[in-house]
Each structure stands twice: as structure tokens, then as C-alpha cells.
Amino acid sequence: MSLLEEGRDVPLGRYTVVRRTLPNKARRTVGAWCFLDHHGPEDVTGKPGMRIPPHPHIGLQTVSWLLSGEVRHRDSLGSDQVIVPGQLNIMTSGRGIAHSENSPTDKPPLLHGLQLWVALPEAARHMPPAFQHIADLPTLSDSGVKVTVAVGTLEGQSSPADVHTELLGADVELSGATRIRVRPDFEHAAVVTEGTATINGVDLAPGSLLYLGDGLEQLALAGNARLFLLGGVPFEEELVMWWNFVGRTHEEIVEARDDWMAAAGRFGVVPGGEQPLPAPGMPSTRLKPRPRYRQGPA
């Protein structure tokens, strides 16, 4: 059963507005994917471009995927990496890490991409932080389609990205009609980043997420479009998500916020001298764990 959910515009930093499609009104996760922002395409000529100062994360992996432009990642491990289209940055927060994301001074004129989070399972969420940059990702091509496998395995092609649950993340460039074999034990979803596509009979344009459910052995795709395909074994652990933190309890989130505001050693320091982003105040009500769907299984 397919479910189409509209995204919403969210300001990110001082200069960037993103279209957030996950979590949404109906679903909080697709596999362990728990967050998806689509930014651009934006002409950043004469503008700052992306400017996101140092900020913390716990309990998740960030996955950065660009379609146009460049973004410089710096983190408290000492990583300093510019990402360009076709490459992957994946940062594992574990118990705690901080990073910044900024457009370089000599940036290209167009900025367009996706920022995604993966919830870490209980067995991995307290691990030491890590960062991985992958410049050469596997691809597969057929009539009417080119696929870059960013995370996981698709049609026999496997990404070297380190993940901690069974996942799929793939960039699909369509110029006609095709079918892609997928794992029936995965649930799947897709977002279109350029053009319009039809996926299993449902039309999809930028700004929405199409949840496709599980039990599928193949996807029927058509159109002149570019899209990002998400998949994974359903993530059954309940999550508490607040600001940049993914945890399990209210107390855990409070502790992480307090550690960040106290500049405790837990998150380290991002080189570069930028002023860190302060955490917002905690809500007046207690944060509660949430299941992976809001309105019943799709």
C-alpha cells in the first residue's frame, strides 16, 4: 500500500530553507532512515550558500548527498572534507560528535542536495564517533536508468559505507521506463529531486515522499527524473527525536543538551573558530518515545 506525504519547508541555519519529508505526519522511519531534508536547487551566486555552524549529534548517522555544488564538512574528530556530487559523506555520531557544514568560498553557482539521518540501533548508538568519505561509489546502468548505490546493496552492487542496520540508499537517474529488483523484507520509500516520475503507478514530484511499504520484489519506474530510493528492514526500536539528538528517553536528551551547552568534552570541538550553535530550550512537556508510524501501519 503506497502513501504519499507532502514535505514542509524548514529554515536551516541563517541562509538555507529545506523541504523536510521525513519524519512526516504518517511515518517517522523508513527502515532506520529517520530524517530527510531536500535543499535547493538554489543559485548561491553572490550569497553565502550553506552556513550551518558547529552543532552536536547523538544516536545517529548523517548521510550527505549532493546533486550540485560543494559543501565543506568539518567535525570534532578533525575531519575536513569537501563533498561534491557523486561522493558520499557519512558521519557516525555514536555517543556524541559535533560538526559544521559550509559552502566553500569559491563555491559553484548552484547548490542542491539531500541531508539524511539514520537511527543507530541499541547495539551501536553508544559507540565512538566516526567519519567516512567515499569518493568512488558503485553504479549500474541499463536502458533508461543509471543508479548510484550510496548505502547498502542493490542489484548486486554494494556500497562500502559502514552502516549498522540493513539499509538501502540509492540515487536513480531515469530517462524512460525500467524495473528495479528490491528486497521484499525491506520497506521502501522515494523522493524525487528533479523532474517527475511514476513509481508503481503513483506520480511523484519534488516536495513529497512516497512510502511504498514492504513485501515488494520489484519497483516499476518511469519518467524523466532523478530520485533517491530509501529502504531497510523495519526499525522496531522506539525513538525520542529532539533537535539534533536521537535517543530513547527524555533524560537522555536532557543530558545531551546540558553537555552541549556546558561545552563538555563529550562532543569535542570543531576546528575553525566558528561560534557553536546554541541548543533551544527544552519543551515544557516530557519527551516520549514514538513508534515508527503515527496512523497505523501502511
Automatic annotation (TrEMBL):
Residues 287-298 have a biased composition (Basic residues). Keywords: Iron, Metal-binding. The keyword GTP-binding does not apply. Fe cation binds at residues 55, 57, 99, 101. Residues 18-118 form the Pirin N-terminal domain. Binds 1 Fe cation per subunit. GO terms for molecular function: metal ion binding. Residues 271-298 are annotated as: Disordered. SUPFAM superfamilies: RmlC-like cupins (SSF51182). InterPro entries: Pirin, Pirin_C_dom, Pirin_N_dom, RmlC-like_jellyroll, RmlC_Cupin_sf. It comes from the Bacteria. Residues 171-262 form the Pirin C-terminal domain. Its cofactor is Fe cation. Belongs to the pirin family. This is Pirin family protein. It comes from Dactylosporangium matsuzakiense.
